[in-house]
Design a protein that fits this description.
With 116 residues, the chain is α/β, with parallel strands linked by helices. The chain has a single domain, classed as 2-Layer Sandwich (Transcription Regulator spoIIAA), CATH 3.30.750.24. It contains four helices and five strands. The protein has a five-stranded mixed sheet. The N and C termini lie far apart (28 Å).
């Protein structure tokens, strides 16, 4: 199960993902991301429990980021596991996404503040 849960903190939605995000799980992840963005709030994607992500999982994240920008909302990645960070770095997406080391840092940065 790739979507572990959705919680709210200080007006932000936190979408926790876990396990492997591959072709089989990417559809559920995409739906969860887009549904969260429909609420018009900042979405923080907690990737701390993700052990693997393939191109379909990355595509879901990129699509969500594009939707967020289009609707003038925000999407940031939080607590990115080392394996996922390597994939993001290889694709140079670590320069595209806001990435925060943990939820506290994301909250402290506030909406619209880039974090890396």
């Amino acid at each position: 199960m790739a979507v572990a849960g959705i919680t709210e903190s200080e007006g932000r939605l936190i979408l926790a993902l876990e396990g492997e995000i591959d072709l089989e799980q990417a559809g559920a992840v995409r739906r969860a991301l887009l549904d969260a963005l429909k609420k018009g709030r900042t979405v923080l994607v907690d990737l701390s429990q993700v052990t693997y992500i393939d191109s379909s999982g990355i595509a879901s994240l990129v699509e969500a980021l594009q939707v967020a920008k289009k609707q003038k909302s925000e999407l940031a990645l939080v607590a990115v596991s080392q394996r996922v960070r390597r994939v993001l770095e290889l694709a140079r997406l670590d320069k595209v996404f806001q990435i925060h080391p943990d939820l506290a840092a994301a909250t402290a940065a506030g909406a619209g503040s880039p974090g890396n």
